[in-house]
Amino acid sequence: MSKKLFIETLGCAMNVRDSEHMIAELNAREGYELTTDAREADLILINTCSVREKPVHKLFSELGVFKRLKKADAKIGVCGCTASHLGKEIIKRAPYVNFVLGARNVSKIGDIIHKDKAVEVEIDYDESQFAFKDFRATAYKAYINISIGCDKQCTFCIVPKTRGDEISIPVDLIVGEARRAVENGAKEVFLLGQNVNNYGRRFSGEQEKVNFSELLRRVSGIEGLERIRFTSPHPLHMDDEFIEEFARNPKICKSMHMPLQSGSTEILKAMKRGYSKEWFLNRAAKLREMVPNVSISTDIIVAFPGESDEDFAQTMEVLSAVRFEQVFSFKYSPRPHTEAEAFTNAVDSEVASSRLHTLQAHHDSILDEISLTNKGNIVEVYFEELRNDGYIAGRTDNNIGVKVKGSEEWLGKIARVKITEVSRTVQYGEIIA
Ligand code: 5AD
Ligand code: SF4
Fold first, then answer.
1. 378-431 adopts what CATH topology?
2. What does the angle CA 245 – CA 248 – CA 252 come to, to the nearest 5 degrees?
3. 249: CA distance to ligand 1 center in Å?
C-alpha cells in the first residue's frame, strides 16, 4: 500500500506552488499519494504563512489537533514562512513535530523526512535552478515560479526574512516549464514572484539578462498558450514599457494587482514603499486609459503606526479615484524582525477596526456599482472547475469569477457567456457559443 501524504497550505500562491513541488518530490522519490484525511496520513505537512500574526497563533492550535488525530507512527513537518522565522522554536513549543523546513528549502523535502528533529531554514539557500519534479492540482492552469525571495525592505513585511534575497529563475527554465504545462493541457500560466516586474535584476551565475516585459513576450510566444497571469507586480516598477506590453499583448489577462498599502505619501514613506500617492494614481490612470476593460486589485494595510485620520482619508480618496475591482484589506499586524516592529506610534486598536470597516464598506459600495454594469455583457470564460452543484466555474480574462450550469465537457475550454445575474463576488451566466 502506498504511503499517504496530507498537506495543508496557508498563505499566498507562492506557497501553493511550493506545496505542489513538495507533493511532486515526495511522490517521485518516496511514492507518497495525497490524502484529504489527516487521520490516515503517514506524513502531515503544514505549509505556513507568517505575514500576519493570527495565522502563526493558529499554527500551534492546529498542530495540537493533528497530534491528537494522527496515526501513532505518522510524522508531522512544519514548512513555509513560519518555519523560516521560528525555526527550532517550533520544536521547542511542539516537541512532537518531526522536522521544520523553511520556505527557501523546499527542495530538501525528500531528505528531511528521514531526519528526526531536523531544522532546515537556511535563508540564502539557492533553489533558483533546482529541477523540481512536476505536480499540478489542476491540468488547466499552471503556477510557475519566476523568482524566489524579495529584495525590498518594506518596514511592515517579514517576507524578506522568511524568503531571503531575490533571485530570478533563468528565462529558459521558465519558458520550458510553461511549454510542458501547455503540452499537458493548460491554456493558462500564472507567473509567480514577490516582485514579478523586478524580474531579471539578479540571477544566480551567468544567465541571459531579460526583464519582465521581455519574459512576457517570450512566454506569450508559446503555441497553444492562451492566457498569462502574474502576481505580484510592484507599483514602483510599473514603468511605461511594462504597462504598454500589458496593454498590447493579447495573451496577457487584463487583470492587474497593484498593492497600494496606503494612500498617504507620508505613510508610504514610513513603509519604505518607494512611491507616492501621485505616482500610484498616475500609473492606475495610465492603465485604465490604455486598457479600458482592465480590472485592478489591491492590498491595503490600515492603521500602520502613525496613520492619522488625514492619512486614512487619503487612502479612501485613492479608493474613490481608482475604483478597484478587488481589495484585500488588513489591519496592521506588527511582525518580528521588521523595522516597523520598533515604531512606538501605534494606532489604537478600536480606531484600526473602525477604519477597516469604513474602508471595506466603501469598497463594497463601489463594487456593487461595478458589478451591475456587467449584467447582460458577453464575456469569454475559461472553465477550470467542476462544482458539485451542477455548475462549472471559470474566470474572464479580467478575472471575474463566472458560473454557468454545465458539465465537465467544458473544462479546459474557453466559451462565450452572457452574464444573467451579478453579485459582488461571482456572476452567473449562460453559454452562448
Ligand atoms: N500587517 C498587515 N498586513 C500585512 N501585509 C504584509 N505585512 C503585513 C503586516 N505586517 C499585507 C500586505 C501585503 C499582503 C500580502 O499582506 O498588504 O501586500
Ligand atoms: Fe506568502 Fe508572504 Fe505568507 Fe510567505 S509570508 S506565505 S511569502 S504571503
1. OB fold (Dihydrolipoamide Acetyltransferase, E2P) (2.40.50)
2. 75
3. 30
